[in-house]
Specification:
The chain has 317 residues and is mostly beta strands. It has one domain: TolB, C-terminal domain (Neuraminidase). The chain is globular, with a radius of gyration of 18 Å. The protein binds magnesium ion. Magnesium ion (MG) binds next to strand 17. Magnesium ion binds next to strand 17.
Amino acid sequence: MALDPAIEVMDKRFYRLVIGNAHIDRLWTGGRWTEGPVYVPASRSLVFSDIPNDRTLRYCELTDSVHVFEQPARNQNGHCLDLEGRVVSCEHRGRAVSRIGHDGRREVLADAHQGHRLNSPNDVVVKSDGSIWFTDPTYGIDSDYEGDAALSEQSGSHVYRIGTPGAPGQRGDITAVVTDMVRPNGLAFSPDESVLYVCDTGISHLGKNCPPDLRSYRLSPDGHSIAGEGSVVATCTEGVFDGFRVDDEGNIWASAGDGVHCLAPDGTLLGKIRIPEVVANVEFGGLKRNRLYICGTTSLYAMYVNARAATRPVPGV
Ligand code: MG
């Protein structure tokens, strides 16, 4: 079995995570900056953002086609599903985290912290207890390209946790959980949710003074906050880590300047899937959750891999 030439193996453990003869599909092109992919199993589709064009798109696996899902879309960026399978969205222009209710209506879950507007929520993940964790860098207010230019009202760019969101129309309680990063961006939990991974793309503002690190933060025993300081898991060797996903063995599949980098839980670079465009984010999809969807600048790519999305632990077990 010949590996696709786009696959680069750095560590022999990567051979087990890729599939001989599997190849990269370019499913669609025509975006400006694709981001925020979330797989929706019930409709066998992938919802993703095209931020500068202010639209979300939907790729249907059954018809192999892409159509506009929402436009204008408040310059949405990252997405994930909540415990009920509802799509949760980060909105640059809305400066909010919102959710599409079962009735199709938009519910705002958070748009302020301590009475001041958020910067521009970037990426989001839901924990098994229903809490929603998101990053809030300034990329959506730095210029009019990916949102509306504005000054930050916050003390910095932080990671926040929304406690149990209330009934429709009610905001959940929101707390800052990580406050020592420059521009927190992608985030994900380890499979057992004992660790939160967050990458910092602050090189965009601080240059070499902010290396493109992926950091780990251990959660407190109650799982509601972070215990202690973060530590660097890996530093991106090409471009920056932006968005990433964790597979069921704890490996981290991260976007980078030359494609997707697969990192072992200890940060070792196992291998790459080279993509001819800068990659911003990835998501496991398909019915077996073993198809890696890749948002690469103007295009959506996919490749079957021998890994699958981590499933959330069942609370109390
Ligand atoms: Mg991002």
